[in-house]
Fold this sequence. Notes:
Layout: H1 9-23
Amino acid sequence: MGNSLLISGSDKTIAALLVALLSCVDCVPLEGDTLCGAEEPTTYSIVFTGKWSQAAFPKQYPLYRPPAQCGPQLGLRHVEGQRLCQQRHA
């Protein structure tokens, strides 16, 4: 019973070939379908609301400002060759 999870050598070869084959497959629309049906480009809006104020930090404002606590990624690009955002290093 405990050996039922073991895979034979030929099964490993078939699995490896299947994975290699599937990694080469690309998603394509079915006949008659289009990739995108939108008539106009999509527009996104990002609103930043800062919490750094004298009311929120009465003892620290404006003498000490804690470091930012956000991730490096703000957005993603949808079109190859166009950047939505870019992180710059000093």
